[in-house]
Amino acid sequence: MTEWKMKRFWSEARAEPAAAGFAILLDGRPVKTPAKAGLCVPTRTLADAVAAEWDAQSGPVRPETMPLTRAANAAIDKVAIQQAEVAAMLAEYGRTDLICYRAEGPNELVRRQEAAWDPLLAWSAEEVGAPLVPTTGVVHIRQPAASLERFAEEVRGFDAFGLTALHDLVTLSGSLVIGLAALRGAFDGDDLWQRSRIDEIWQQEQWGEDAEASQAAARKEAAFAQALEFFRLCRR
Questions:
Q1: Is residue 180 in some structural domain?
Q2: What's residue 168's pLDDT?
Q3: Where would I find the H helices in the chain?
Q4: Residues 6+ positions from 18 with CB-CB distance below 8 Å
Q5: Rounded mean pLDDT of the chain?
Q6: Spatial contact of 75 and 50, defined as CB atoms under 8 Å apart
Q7: Are residues 113 and 2 in the same domain?
Q8: How confident is the model at residue 228, as a pLDDT?
Q9: Percent of the chain, pLDDT > 70?
Q10: Using one digit for the tens of pLDDT, what is the confidence trace for 116-158?
Q11: Does 127 share its domain with 87?
């Protein structure tokens, strides 16, 4: 993501209706994305939240404190212009979904994976119409072609803003099923994040906490929550 190099020059940030949704204005002037497109989002709720991020800036603009703005920029500048390719890439996660690859042992880890991931497999089969086959070990297993096509159909149904949220949820968790379950509201978002980290939590318990790894995990957890909130604001 191209970062802005600017200091606050405006006195007011606000959202206003526009032809394609809602625009964000700084002292009446429309904000542009890094690629110089208009920063226009689909809902008033999201536009107000993006405007609030701009209004919260003081001194140098800090993009890292503006996750909704950055996600909207990505939707407009990147995802919208290659939407089919992004959808195809995300659908491919169904072939090697995290929740299908189980440990052979020890028994406690196997039990935890079953408890966390079997309900997600059941949800995928019953609610998405895409049953998946679990296996042990890391050797690739072929998934049902009909399930993969159902995933592709599901992902293609999202617009650029929805795909932007789904992209982060899937790539952060390693699971298309988790990403879809988050966007459908089938499970609590925090709960889904914890389900995606069964293996990491197990390793931490066995070998102790690594400060750097814990910080990285915290950043990913925050990004997962931000992606889900971005999607929710896009639908309100």
A1: yes
A2: 98
A3: 44-55, 67-74, 83-91, 107-123, 145-156, 160-173, 176-184, 189-196, 198-207, 211-235
A4: 30, 38, 40
A5: 95
A6: no
A7: no
A8: 98
A9: 98
A10: 999 999 999 999 999 999 999 989 999 999 999 999 999 999 9
A11: yes
Q: SS3 for 84?
A: helix
d(CA 150, CA 155): 9
The Cα 163–Cα 145 span in angstroms is 22
Instruction: Kindly tell me the burial class for residue 171, based on how many C-beta atoms sit within 10 Å of its own C-beta (0-12, 13-18, 19 or more).
Output: middle
> Angle, nearest 10°, between helix axes 189-196 and 107-123?
130
What are the two backbone dihedrals, phi and then psi, of residue 66, each rounded to the nearest 5 degrees? -130, 60
Residue reference for tokens 């920029």:
73
Residue 47 has pLDDT above 70, yes or no: yes
Are 88 and 167 part of one and the same domain?
yes
**Tally of domains within the chain:** 2
Query: In which band, very low, low, confident or very high, does the pLDDT at 1 lie, cut at 50, 70 and 90?
Result: very low
SS3 24: strand
CATH of the domain at 10: 3.30.2180.10
